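Second attempt. The first submission of 2Fe-2S iron-sulfur cluster binding domain-containing protein had a stray character pasted in from the spreadsheet, which I only caught after the job came back as garbage. Lesson logged: always re-copy from the clean sequence file. Corrected sequence (466 aa) follows.
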Amino acid sequence: MIEFILNNRLIQTDNLASTTLLDFIRYDENLRGTKIGCREGDCGACTILIGGMQNGKLDYMSATSCLTPLPNVNGKHVVTVEGLNLTDRLNQAQQAMVDCSGTQCGFCTPGFINSMCGYALTTVEPSLESAVSAIDGNICRCTGYKSIERASAILTEKLLEKDHSQPLDWLINNNFIPSYFSKIEERLAVLKSDYTSNEGVPIGGGTDLYVQKHDELHDMNLNYLFDKKHLNGITFEGKRCVIKSEVTVSDLITNSILLEAIPNWYNYLKLVSSTPIRNIGTIAGNLANASPIGDFTIILLAMKATITLTNKANENRKLPLKDFYLGYKTLDKSNDEIISEISFELPSTNSQFNFEKVCKRQYLDIASVNTACTIETNGENITDADFSIGGVGPIPKYLEKTSAFLIHKKMEPSSILQAEQILQTELAPISDARGTSDYKRLLARQLFFSHFITLFPETIKMEDLI
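This time the job returned cleanly.
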Protein backbone atom coordinates (compact mmCIF):
# COMPACT_ATOMS: atom_id res chain seq x y z
CA MET A 1 0.00 0.00 0.00
CA ILE A 2 1.27 3.44 -1.00
CA GLU A 3 -0.05 6.39 1.00
CA PHE A 4 0.41 10.11 0.63
CA ILE A 5 -1.56 13.34 0.77
CA LEU A 6 -2.80 14.58 -2.59
CA ASN A 7 -3.75 18.22 -2.20
CA ASN A 8 -6.00 18.05 0.88
CA ARG A 9 -6.90 14.34 0.78
CA LEU A 10 -5.25 11.22 2.13
CA ILE A 11 -4.54 8.69 -0.62
CA GLN A 12 -4.07 4.99 0.05
CA THR A 13 -3.62 2.94 -3.08
CA ASP A 14 -2.48 -0.51 -4.12
CA ASN A 15 -2.01 0.57 -7.74
CA LEU A 16 0.90 -0.97 -9.58
CA ALA A 17 4.00 0.62 -8.12
CA SER A 18 5.32 1.23 -11.65
CA THR A 19 2.43 3.65 -12.30
CA THR A 20 3.61 7.19 -12.87
CA LEU A 21 2.30 9.93 -10.62
CA LEU A 22 0.97 11.71 -13.73
CA ASP A 23 -1.23 8.78 -14.74
CA PHE A 24 -2.49 8.31 -11.19
CA ILE A 25 -3.38 12.00 -10.85
CA ARG A 26 -5.22 12.20 -14.17
CA TYR A 27 -6.84 8.80 -14.55
CA ASP A 28 -7.37 7.55 -11.01
CA GLU A 29 -8.11 10.89 -9.37
CA ASN A 30 -9.52 12.71 -12.43
CA LEU A 31 -7.45 15.84 -11.75
CA ARG A 32 -7.03 16.95 -15.34
CA GLY A 33 -5.22 20.22 -14.64
CA THR A 34 -1.95 18.28 -14.71
CA LYS A 35 -1.36 17.95 -18.45
CA ILE A 36 0.22 15.22 -20.55
CA GLY A 37 2.82 16.74 -22.86
CA CYS A 38 6.08 15.12 -23.84
CA ARG A 39 6.20 12.37 -21.17
CA GLU A 40 9.97 12.90 -21.12
CA GLY A 41 10.32 15.67 -18.53
CA ASP A 42 11.02 18.37 -21.11
CA CYS A 43 7.88 20.48 -21.44
CA GLY A 44 6.85 20.97 -17.80
CA ALA A 45 3.11 20.69 -18.48
CA CYS A 46 2.84 17.95 -15.84
CA THR A 47 4.81 19.81 -13.14
CA ILE A 48 3.54 19.27 -9.60
CA LEU A 49 4.91 20.03 -6.13
CA ILE A 50 6.17 17.40 -3.72
CA GLY A 51 6.50 18.25 -0.03
CA GLY A 52 8.47 16.12 2.40
CA MET A 53 10.20 16.42 5.75
CA GLN A 54 13.86 17.45 5.47
CA ASN A 55 15.98 18.17 8.54
CA GLY A 56 12.94 18.62 10.72
CA LYS A 57 10.97 20.94 8.44
CA LEU A 58 8.58 20.62 5.55
CA ASP A 59 10.24 21.38 2.21
CA TYR A 60 8.60 21.56 -1.22
CA MET A 61 10.10 21.02 -4.65
CA SER A 62 8.78 21.01 -8.20
CA ALA A 63 8.92 17.74 -10.14
CA THR A 64 7.77 16.30 -13.45
CA SER A 65 5.00 13.85 -12.58
CA CYS A 66 5.41 12.01 -15.90
CA LEU A 67 8.75 10.63 -14.67
CA THR A 68 7.87 10.10 -11.00
CA PRO A 69 7.08 6.52 -9.91
CA LEU A 70 4.17 6.39 -7.47
CA PRO A 71 6.24 4.94 -4.58
CA ASN A 72 8.55 7.97 -4.72
CA VAL A 73 5.84 10.15 -3.17
CA ASN A 74 4.99 7.72 -0.38
CA GLY A 75 4.64 9.60 2.92
CA LYS A 76 4.71 12.99 1.18
CA HIS A 77 2.43 15.83 0.10
CA VAL A 78 1.65 16.08 -3.61
CA VAL A 79 0.18 19.35 -4.87
CA THR A 80 -1.50 19.79 -8.26
CA VAL A 81 -2.86 23.06 -9.62
CA GLU A 82 -6.28 22.17 -8.19
CA GLY A 83 -4.71 22.03 -4.75
CA LEU A 84 -3.50 25.62 -5.08
CA ASN A 85 -6.91 27.15 -5.68
CA LEU A 86 -8.28 29.50 -3.05
CA THR A 87 -11.98 29.40 -2.22
CA ASP A 88 -12.96 32.93 -3.24
CA ARG A 89 -10.20 34.38 -5.41
CA LEU A 90 -7.18 33.60 -7.54
CA ASN A 91 -3.93 32.95 -5.70
CA GLN A 92 -1.09 35.42 -6.18
CA ALA A 93 0.62 33.45 -8.95
CA GLN A 94 -2.64 32.98 -10.86
CA GLN A 95 -3.53 36.65 -10.50
CA ALA A 96 -0.10 37.77 -11.67
CA MET A 97 -0.43 35.59 -14.79
CA VAL A 98 -3.87 37.10 -15.52
CA ASP A 99 -2.67 40.67 -14.95
CA CYS A 100 0.32 40.19 -17.27
CA SER A 101 -1.52 38.20 -19.97
CA GLY A 102 0.81 35.31 -19.27
CA THR A 103 -1.49 32.64 -20.68
CA GLN A 104 -3.03 31.99 -24.08
CA CYS A 105 -4.01 28.40 -24.92
CA GLY A 106 -3.56 27.51 -21.25
CA PHE A 107 -2.02 24.08 -21.74
CA CYS A 108 1.27 24.97 -20.05
CA THR A 109 -0.27 27.30 -17.44
CA PRO A 110 -0.86 24.76 -14.61
CA GLY A 111 2.82 23.79 -14.71
CA PHE A 112 3.89 27.42 -14.53
CA ILE A 113 1.51 28.10 -11.63
CA ASN A 114 2.85 25.11 -9.71
CA SER A 115 6.46 26.18 -10.28
CA MET A 116 5.68 29.76 -9.24
CA CYS A 117 3.85 28.66 -6.10
CA GLY A 118 6.72 26.29 -5.33
CA TYR A 119 9.05 29.26 -5.58
CA ALA A 120 6.87 31.20 -3.15
CA LEU A 121 7.04 28.29 -0.70
CA THR A 122 10.82 27.86 -0.86
CA THR A 123 12.48 31.20 -1.59
CA VAL A 124 14.42 32.87 1.20
CA GLU A 125 15.89 35.77 -0.78
CA PRO A 126 13.42 36.61 -3.58
CA SER A 127 14.82 38.04 -6.80
CA LEU A 128 13.65 38.14 -10.39
CA GLU A 129 16.61 36.00 -11.42
CA SER A 130 15.74 33.21 -8.98
CA ALA A 131 12.02 33.49 -9.80
CA VAL A 132 12.70 33.01 -13.51
CA SER A 133 15.09 30.19 -12.65
CA ALA A 134 12.25 28.43 -10.80
CA ILE A 135 10.25 28.17 -14.04
CA ASP A 136 13.16 27.00 -16.18
CA GLY A 137 11.55 23.59 -16.66
CA ASN A 138 8.30 25.01 -18.07
CA ILE A 139 7.93 25.60 -21.80
CA CYS A 140 5.30 27.91 -23.35
CA ARG A 141 4.57 27.89 -27.08
CA CYS A 142 2.01 30.72 -27.25
CA THR A 143 2.81 33.91 -25.39
CA GLY A 144 6.57 34.05 -25.45
CA TYR A 145 8.18 34.46 -22.07
CA LYS A 146 8.20 38.21 -21.40
CA SER A 147 4.64 38.27 -20.11
CA ILE A 148 5.42 35.31 -17.84
CA GLU A 149 8.61 37.00 -16.66
CA ARG A 150 6.57 40.11 -15.82
CA ALA A 151 4.23 37.92 -13.77
CA SER A 152 7.26 36.47 -12.00
CA ALA A 153 8.46 40.01 -11.26
CA ILE A 154 5.13 40.89 -9.63
CA LEU A 155 5.29 37.70 -7.56
CA THR A 156 8.86 38.49 -6.51
CA GLU A 157 7.95 42.00 -5.41
CA LYS A 158 5.18 40.67 -3.19
CA LEU A 159 7.47 37.99 -1.74
CA LEU A 160 9.97 40.61 -0.57
CA GLU A 161 7.66 41.11 2.41
CA LYS A 162 7.63 37.41 3.31
CA ASP A 163 7.83 36.70 7.05
CA HIS A 164 10.47 33.96 7.33
CA SER A 165 9.71 33.35 11.01
CA GLN A 166 6.23 32.04 10.06
CA PRO A 167 6.44 31.49 6.30
CA LEU A 168 3.42 29.22 5.83
CA ASP A 169 1.11 31.47 7.86
CA TRP A 170 2.31 34.50 5.93
CA LEU A 171 1.78 32.79 2.56
CA ILE A 172 -1.71 31.69 3.58
CA ASN A 173 -2.69 35.11 4.93
CA ASN A 174 -1.41 36.82 1.78
CA ASN A 175 -3.25 34.54 -0.66
CA PHE A 176 -0.32 32.59 -2.06
CA ILE A 177 -1.54 29.14 -0.95
CA PRO A 178 -4.74 27.67 0.58
CA SER A 179 -5.18 27.43 4.36
CA TYR A 180 -5.04 23.62 4.49
CA PHE A 181 -1.24 23.82 4.01
CA SER A 182 -0.91 24.76 7.70
CA LYS A 183 -1.95 21.23 8.75
CA ILE A 184 0.13 19.22 6.28
CA GLU A 185 3.20 18.76 8.47
CA GLU A 186 1.29 17.16 11.34
CA ARG A 187 -0.67 15.00 8.90
CA LEU A 188 2.53 13.72 7.29
CA ALA A 189 3.87 12.77 10.71
CA VAL A 190 1.40 9.87 10.98
CA LEU A 191 2.09 8.45 7.51
CA LYS A 192 4.63 5.70 6.94
CA SER A 193 7.70 7.40 5.53
CA ASP A 194 9.29 4.51 3.67
CA TYR A 195 8.16 2.23 0.88
CA THR A 196 9.65 -1.25 0.73
CA SER A 197 9.69 -2.78 -2.73
CA ASN A 198 10.57 -6.21 -3.99
CA GLU A 199 14.00 -6.80 -5.41
CA GLY A 200 14.16 -6.06 -9.09
CA VAL A 201 15.53 -3.51 -11.52
CA PRO A 202 16.81 -0.62 -9.37
CA ILE A 203 15.21 2.75 -10.05
CA GLY A 204 15.94 6.08 -8.37
CA GLY A 205 14.33 9.32 -9.53
CA GLY A 206 13.03 7.73 -12.73
CA THR A 207 14.23 10.53 -15.00
CA ASP A 208 16.20 8.15 -17.24
CA LEU A 209 14.37 4.85 -17.00
CA TYR A 210 10.88 6.29 -17.56
CA VAL A 211 12.07 8.01 -20.72
CA GLN A 212 13.80 4.93 -22.12
CA LYS A 213 11.38 2.19 -21.09
CA HIS A 214 8.05 3.84 -20.32
CA ASP A 215 5.91 1.13 -21.92
CA GLU A 216 8.02 -1.74 -20.57
CA LEU A 217 8.06 -0.64 -16.93
CA HIS A 218 4.51 -1.78 -16.21
CA ASP A 219 5.63 -5.37 -16.71
CA MET A 220 8.92 -5.02 -14.82
CA ASN A 221 9.71 -5.81 -11.21
CA LEU A 222 11.30 -2.63 -9.83
CA ASN A 223 13.35 -1.95 -6.74
CA TYR A 224 12.55 1.60 -5.64
CA LEU A 225 15.60 3.29 -4.16
CA PHE A 226 14.75 6.99 -4.26
CA ASP A 227 14.99 8.88 -0.97
CA LYS A 228 16.25 5.90 0.99
CA LYS A 229 18.26 7.16 3.98
CA HIS A 230 21.13 4.68 3.57
CA LEU A 231 21.61 5.83 -0.03
CA ASN A 232 21.34 9.55 0.62
CA GLY A 233 23.69 12.21 1.91
CA ILE A 234 26.76 14.31 1.15
CA THR A 235 29.77 14.13 3.47
CA PHE A 236 33.32 15.45 3.40
CA GLU A 237 36.40 13.55 4.48
CA GLY A 238 39.06 16.24 4.48
CA LYS A 239 39.17 17.52 0.88
CA ARG A 240 37.28 14.49 -0.44
CA CYS A 241 33.56 14.79 -1.16
CA VAL A 242 31.55 11.57 -0.76
CA ILE A 243 28.03 11.42 -2.15
CA LYS A 244 25.57 8.58 -1.86
CA SER A 245 23.88 7.29 -4.96
CA GLU A 246 20.47 8.91 -4.46
CA VAL A 247 21.87 12.42 -4.08
CA THR A 248 20.26 14.66 -6.70
CA VAL A 249 21.70 17.47 -8.78
CA SER A 250 19.69 19.92 -6.65
CA ASP A 251 21.37 18.53 -3.53
CA LEU A 252 24.76 19.33 -5.07
CA ILE A 253 23.81 22.71 -6.53
CA THR A 254 22.72 23.95 -3.08
CA ASN A 255 25.56 22.46 -1.02
CA SER A 256 27.37 25.36 0.66
CA ILE A 257 30.76 23.61 0.85
CA LEU A 258 30.78 22.80 -2.87
CA LEU A 259 29.59 26.30 -3.75
CA GLU A 260 32.51 27.75 -1.82
CA ALA A 261 35.12 25.24 -2.97
CA ILE A 262 34.35 25.34 -6.71
CA PRO A 263 33.92 28.80 -8.28
CA ASN A 264 30.96 28.92 -10.70
CA TRP A 265 29.63 25.58 -9.37
CA TYR A 266 26.07 26.95 -9.40
CA ASN A 267 26.39 28.20 -13.00
CA TYR A 268 27.85 24.90 -14.18
CA LEU A 269 25.02 22.86 -12.69
CA LYS A 270 22.39 25.24 -14.04
CA LEU A 271 23.38 23.86 -17.44
CA VAL A 272 22.31 20.38 -16.31
CA SER A 273 18.67 19.83 -17.29
CA SER A 274 15.99 21.93 -15.49
CA THR A 275 14.87 22.57 -11.92
CA PRO A 276 12.12 19.87 -11.82
CA ILE A 277 14.53 17.27 -13.24
CA ARG A 278 17.43 18.36 -11.04
CA ASN A 279 15.12 17.92 -8.04
CA ILE A 280 14.54 14.22 -8.70
CA GLY A 281 17.33 13.12 -11.07
CA THR A 282 20.03 11.21 -9.20
CA ILE A 283 23.76 11.42 -9.83
CA ALA A 284 24.11 7.62 -9.86
CA GLY A 285 21.36 7.42 -12.45
CA ASN A 286 23.22 9.86 -14.68
CA LEU A 287 26.35 7.72 -14.43
CA ALA A 288 24.59 4.38 -14.91
CA ASN A 289 22.68 5.69 -17.92
CA ALA A 290 26.08 5.57 -19.68
CA SER A 291 25.14 8.30 -22.13
CA PRO A 292 28.19 9.51 -24.07
CA ILE A 293 27.10 13.06 -23.22
CA GLY A 294 25.85 12.72 -19.65
CA ASP A 295 26.68 16.08 -18.08
CA PHE A 296 27.53 14.87 -14.61
CA THR A 297 29.52 11.97 -16.00
CA ILE A 298 31.75 14.44 -17.82
CA ILE A 299 32.07 16.65 -14.72
CA LEU A 300 33.04 13.75 -12.47
CA LEU A 301 35.48 12.25 -14.97
CA ALA A 302 37.47 15.48 -14.87
CA MET A 303 37.46 15.27 -11.07
CA LYS A 304 38.95 11.76 -11.17
CA ALA A 305 35.90 10.40 -9.37
CA THR A 306 35.80 6.92 -7.86
CA ILE A 307 32.59 4.91 -7.60
CA THR A 308 31.61 2.16 -5.19
CA LEU A 309 29.51 -0.72 -6.50
CA THR A 310 27.53 -2.78 -3.99
CA ASN A 311 25.97 -6.17 -4.74
CA LYS A 312 23.06 -8.00 -3.11
CA ALA A 313 25.42 -9.65 -0.65
CA ASN A 314 26.39 -6.13 0.47
CA GLU A 315 29.92 -6.57 -0.89
CA ASN A 316 31.64 -3.40 -2.11
CA ARG A 317 33.89 -2.87 -5.09
CA LYS A 318 35.63 0.41 -5.93
CA LEU A 319 36.87 1.52 -9.32
CA PRO A 320 37.78 4.78 -11.07
CA LEU A 321 34.84 6.21 -12.99
CA LYS A 322 36.96 6.34 -16.15
CA ASP A 323 37.20 2.51 -16.05
CA PHE A 324 33.43 2.05 -15.64
CA TYR A 325 32.60 2.50 -19.33
CA LEU A 326 33.61 -0.42 -21.53
CA GLY A 327 31.65 0.38 -24.69
CA TYR A 328 28.43 2.01 -25.82
CA LYS A 329 25.97 1.51 -22.92
CA THR A 330 28.26 -1.27 -21.62
CA LEU A 331 29.43 -1.02 -18.01
CA ASP A 332 31.90 -2.80 -15.75
CA LYS A 333 29.00 -3.80 -13.50
CA SER A 334 27.22 -7.06 -12.77
CA ASN A 335 23.43 -7.27 -12.81
CA ASP A 336 23.16 -7.40 -9.03
CA GLU A 337 25.37 -4.35 -8.41
CA ILE A 338 24.27 -0.77 -7.91
CA ILE A 339 26.31 2.41 -7.62
CA SER A 340 26.14 3.09 -3.89
CA GLU A 341 28.71 5.85 -3.53
CA ILE A 342 30.66 8.39 -5.59
CA SER A 343 33.66 10.33 -4.33
CA PHE A 344 36.01 12.98 -5.69
CA GLU A 345 38.65 15.44 -4.51
CA LEU A 346 37.75 19.09 -4.19
CA PRO A 347 40.04 21.44 -6.12
CA SER A 348 43.15 22.41 -4.15
CA THR A 349 44.45 25.96 -3.75
CA ASN A 350 46.58 25.42 -6.87
CA SER A 351 43.94 23.74 -9.03
CA GLN A 352 40.92 25.00 -10.95
CA PHE A 353 37.86 23.34 -12.46
CA ASN A 354 35.85 24.32 -15.54
CA PHE A 355 32.84 22.88 -17.41
CA GLU A 356 31.74 23.81 -20.92
CA LYS A 357 28.66 22.72 -22.86
CA VAL A 358 27.26 23.53 -26.29
CA CYS A 359 23.70 22.59 -27.24
CA LYS A 360 20.89 23.92 -29.41
CA ARG A 361 19.25 25.60 -26.40
CA GLN A 362 21.32 27.08 -23.59
CA TYR A 363 19.24 25.35 -20.94
CA LEU A 364 17.15 22.18 -20.74
CA ASP A 365 18.89 20.45 -23.61
CA ILE A 366 21.24 17.58 -24.35
CA ALA A 367 24.72 18.67 -25.33
CA SER A 368 26.19 18.42 -28.78
CA VAL A 369 29.56 18.39 -27.05
CA ASN A 370 30.36 18.89 -23.37
CA THR A 371 33.74 18.92 -21.67
CA ALA A 372 35.32 19.50 -18.26
CA CYS A 373 38.78 19.90 -16.83
CA THR A 374 40.74 20.17 -13.61
CA ILE A 375 44.11 21.87 -14.01
CA GLU A 376 46.72 22.25 -11.27
CA THR A 377 49.56 24.71 -11.69
CA ASN A 378 52.69 25.68 -9.84
CA GLY A 379 53.76 29.09 -11.06
CA GLU A 380 54.10 28.89 -14.86
CA ASN A 381 53.97 25.09 -15.06
CA ILE A 382 51.10 22.61 -15.23
CA THR A 383 51.61 20.03 -12.49
CA ASP A 384 48.45 17.97 -13.07
CA ALA A 385 45.70 17.89 -15.69
CA ASP A 386 42.49 15.96 -16.14
CA PHE A 387 40.26 16.49 -19.17
CA SER A 388 37.03 14.79 -20.18
CA ILE A 389 34.70 15.19 -23.14
CA GLY A 390 31.31 13.90 -24.28
CA GLY A 391 29.53 13.65 -27.61
CA VAL A 392 32.60 12.60 -29.56
CA GLY A 393 32.57 8.83 -29.17
CA PRO A 394 30.57 5.84 -27.95
CA ILE A 395 31.39 6.49 -24.27
CA PRO A 396 31.95 9.53 -22.05
CA LYS A 397 35.64 10.05 -22.62
CA TYR A 398 38.45 10.69 -20.17
CA LEU A 399 41.21 12.20 -22.31
CA GLU A 400 44.09 10.09 -21.10
CA LYS A 401 46.74 11.11 -23.64
CA THR A 402 45.85 14.79 -23.70
CA SER A 403 45.88 15.00 -19.91
CA ALA A 404 49.21 13.16 -19.63
CA PHE A 405 50.84 15.34 -22.29
CA LEU A 406 50.11 18.58 -20.45
CA ILE A 407 51.65 17.51 -17.13
CA HIS A 408 54.95 19.34 -16.55
CA LYS A 409 54.35 21.57 -19.58
CA LYS A 410 54.60 25.34 -19.35
CA MET A 411 51.31 27.22 -19.33
CA GLU A 412 51.67 28.83 -22.75
CA PRO A 413 49.83 28.78 -26.10
CA SER A 414 52.30 26.41 -27.78
CA SER A 415 51.64 23.71 -25.16
CA ILE A 416 47.88 24.07 -25.58
CA LEU A 417 48.07 23.95 -29.37
CA GLN A 418 50.13 20.76 -29.24
CA ALA A 419 47.73 19.23 -26.71
CA GLU A 420 44.78 19.99 -29.00
CA GLN A 421 46.40 17.98 -31.76
CA ILE A 422 46.67 15.03 -29.40
CA LEU A 423 43.07 15.57 -28.29
CA GLN A 424 41.87 15.12 -31.87
CA THR A 425 43.49 11.67 -32.02
CA GLU A 426 41.43 10.58 -29.00
CA LEU A 427 38.08 11.50 -30.58
CA ALA A 428 35.81 9.37 -32.74
CA PRO A 429 32.68 11.49 -33.39
CA ILE A 430 29.87 10.46 -35.70
CA SER A 431 27.38 12.63 -37.57
CA ASP A 432 23.94 12.62 -35.99
CA ALA A 433 21.02 14.91 -35.14
CA ARG A 434 23.25 17.04 -32.90
CA GLY A 435 25.84 17.82 -35.55
CA THR A 436 28.25 16.43 -38.09
CA SER A 437 31.49 14.73 -37.18
CA ASP A 438 33.46 17.76 -38.38
CA TYR A 439 31.29 20.12 -36.33
CA LYS A 440 31.88 18.10 -33.18
CA ARG A 441 35.62 18.07 -33.76
CA LEU A 442 35.50 21.85 -34.17
CA LEU A 443 33.48 22.20 -30.94
CA ALA A 444 35.95 19.97 -29.13
CA ARG A 445 38.78 22.22 -30.26
CA GLN A 446 37.05 25.46 -29.33
CA LEU A 447 35.84 24.23 -25.95
CA PHE A 448 39.28 22.85 -25.14
CA PHE A 449 40.74 26.29 -25.80
CA SER A 450 37.91 27.86 -23.79
CA HIS A 451 39.03 26.03 -20.66
CA PHE A 452 42.37 27.84 -20.74
CA ILE A 453 41.01 31.22 -21.83
CA THR A 454 38.46 31.07 -18.98
CA LEU A 455 40.77 29.83 -16.24
CA PHE A 456 43.96 31.69 -17.21
CA PRO A 457 42.82 34.94 -18.87
CA GLU A 458 46.01 36.78 -17.96
CA THR A 459 48.23 34.20 -19.65
CA ILE A 460 46.16 32.66 -22.46
CA LYS A 461 44.45 34.90 -25.01
CA MET A 462 42.03 33.82 -27.69
CA GLU A 463 44.12 35.41 -30.44
CA ASP A 464 47.08 33.24 -29.42
CA LEU A 465 45.13 30.05 -30.16
CA ILE A 466 43.42 30.82 -33.44
